[in-house]
């Protein structure tokens, strides 16, 4: 998630404050977690690339991805990072 988010940040070059520039140097960046189009955007690749059994398969979020026999889903980076019971 982080490498893809940093790459997008450098390609789009948004106008960031000094605090935001410092924040994006951390994998758990508030900017990446709270700014639409970064960690929340599973359709742009900001998601788990392998099924995670702790997150059930979601037909909307996981559309186009394989539904495995283990039942795992593909959480977005925001879900993976922020879920209070099973996230990072």
TrEMBL record:
<protein>
    <recommendedName>
        <fullName>TraG N-terminal Proteobacteria domain-containing protein</fullName>
    </recommendedName>
</protein>
